[in-house]
């Protein structure tokens, strides 16, 4: 099949082929709250995505790993942050974007 596992828990493709996502999950010893992620080079660009299809195409260099499922939900903006944002907008900084949750905390796409 052309897959090699390593001591860090990654599975790498060494050839072309297909594998079922449930087989990948078993190889990675996926926990119930984890998902399978694929990283590789597509059209000259390194990319990564969650494996969602029942069957996965693989090519040399593709790497599969287990990781936590990402669940997006709406989170209320903390009151202190909302107050600061309102103050900035009243002071003439109307271009300040709305804050968005991120893994590092709250941020905005300011100045894009």
Instruction: Give the uncertain stretches in residue-range form.
Output: none
Helix fraction? 10-25%
Major sheet strand order: 1-2-7-4-5
The largest pleated sheet is described as:
5 strands, antiparallel
- How many β-strand stretches? 9
Structure at a glance:
The chain has 112 residues and is of the alpha+beta class.
Which key phrases capture this entry?
elongated, 2 helices, alpha+beta, 112 residues, five-stranded antiparallel β-sheet, two-stranded antiparallel sheet
Descriptive overview:
- The chain is α+β, with helices and mostly antiparallel strands.
- The protein has a domain of 65 residues.
- It has two helices and nine strands, in the order βββαββββαββ.
- It has a five-stranded antiparallel sheet. A two-stranded antiparallel ribbon has the order 3-6. The chain has a two-stranded antiparallel ribbon with strand order 8-9.
- A hairpin with a 5-residue loop joins β1 and β2.
- The longest helix is centred in the last third of the chain and has 12 residues.
- The protein is elongated, with a radius of gyration of 20 Å.
